[in-house]
Design brief:
It is built from 9 helices and 9 strands. By secondary structure, the protein is an alpha/beta fold. The chain has a 4-stranded parallel beta sheet with strand order 1-9-8-7, with helices on one face. The protein has a 3-stranded parallel beta sheet with strand order 4-5-6. Strands 2-3 form a two-stranded parallel sheet. β8, α8 and β9 form a beta-alpha-beta unit. α6 packs parallel to α7 and α8 crosses α9. It is globular, with a radius of gyration of 17 Å.
């Protein structure tokens, strides 16, 4: 049965603490993640873009969560922004994946997010070589976010489908998400500054249709510069109604 994973793209924000906010006033900052994991069953881990996953950090993810929790780490910038998917990115990628093995073995690893820089334009050969090099197994799903419109074509869609890599749909104030079904899982980032109930209902219908088709769904709401993003995640989960 397909699984639904709805969460936020971060959790450690002091401004979320207080009366009628996300974190209770008495909660200590080291307790944030465990509390977050009691409310949601998924997290997009942005910090791994800046720093490689650590052994201790991965163990905290495991120890603080239940078996149905998923962490979707963002691929380190050495791979995406420095080496830009070229051949010399593969060693860093393999180190990244190796550090995540305990998380994968514990069943807590969500889709790994590979977010490309906005100025990196379409390069079919580079992408094909990269996709051929990354490890592929059922417990290690992948998702790629293209932030340059030159990638938006049937040929790139076919490449992702060939390797069972999800096309990330990023929904922003400036542009609606590009939805392309390229894998046995869906990865959507809801990044608008606010969401109406009507828009959330439309998204809920989309996710429900994919879940009914047997596709796992990873859905992450904007965290920074947004007013109470946890409310959208809660509402969306309720609207989807998937158990």
């Amino acid at each position: 049965m397909a699984s639904l994973h709805v969460g936020l793209s971060g959790f450690s924000y002091k401004e979320w603490q207080g009366e009628d906010l996300f974190y209770p006033p008495e909660l200590k900052q080291p307790e944030y993640f465990a509390y977050y994991a009691s409310r949601f069953h998924a997290l997009e881990a942005d910090g791994t873009w800046y720093h490689m996953p650590t052994t201790n950090g991965v163990q905290v993810w495991i120890d603080s969560t239940t078996p149905d929790f998923k962490v979707s780490p963002k691929m380190h910038r050495k791979v995406t922004h420095y080496a830009r998917l070229k051949e010399d990115s593969i060693d860093a990628l393999k180190f990244f994946v190796k550090r995540l093995e305990p998380l994968e073995n514990a069943g807590r690893l969500g889709a790994i997010l590979v977010q490309l820089p906005p100025k990196l334009g379409r390069d079919d050969d580079r992408l094909a070589r990269f996709l051929a090099e990354i490890p592929h197994r059922p417990t290690l799903p992948w998702a790629i976010e293209f932030r340059n419109e030159t990638w938006e074509c049937p040929e790139i869609e076919s490449l992702l489908r060939e390797h069972n890599v999800s096309w990330v749909g990023m929904d922003t104030d400036d542009r609606a998400a590009v939805r392309r079904d390229t894998a046995d899982h869906i990865y959507i980032r809801l990044r608008r500054s606010e969401y109406s109930d009507d828009r959330l209902r439309e998204w809920a219908g989309y996710f429900r249709s994919k879940l009914e088709a047997g596709k796992d769904c990873y859905v992450y709401c904007k965290h920074e510069d947004a007013e109470r993003p946890w409310i959208w995640a809660d509402k969306l989960t309720e609207m989807i109604g998937w158990k």
